Amino acid sequence: PNTKQALHVINKIVQVPVLAVVDRSEFAIIKSLANPSNVHLVYENQLNSYDILLNEAVIFTQAAYDNFVVRTKNKIANGVKA
Q1: pLDDT value at residue 41
Q2: Distance (Å, rounded) from C-alpha 52 to C-alpha 62?
Q3: Mean pLDDT over residues 44-69, rounded?
Q4: pTM greater than the 0.85 cutoff
Q5: What are the angstrom distances between the C-alpha of 25 and each of 13, 43, 64?
């Protein structure tokens, strides 16, 4: 886990406050992004519209994105609004 390196990667993508969506199993990423003031960290199953609107950019890790897509497709298939 390296906060400086994680912020360097994020700053290559965006220069604004960011919502980082991660999977619970990504311990190194979670530890790296826990303290920076311009990063709001949430788990993919805790993603909500308030956090999305509060931040100017949203970044998913690949694992978080994959889990989010599967969970959303399952809800739609079961007739629940996503």
Answers
A1: 95
A2: 18
A3: 94
A4: no
A5: 23, 10, 9
Question: Residue 73 in contact with residue 36, Cβ under 8 Å?
Answer: no
Contacts 24+ apart (CB under 8 A), 47-56: 47/21, 51/19, 52/19, 54/19, 55/16, 55/17, 55/18, 55/19, 56/14, 56/16, 56/17, 56/18
Average pLDDT over residues 56-80: 91
Distances (CA, A) of 28 to 2, 48, 54, 66, 74: 8, 23, 25, 18, 28
Query: Which residue type occupies 78?
Result: N
- CB contact at 8 A, 17 and 57: yes
Per-chain mean pLDDT for the chain: 90
**What is the token pair recorded at 25?**
């199993």
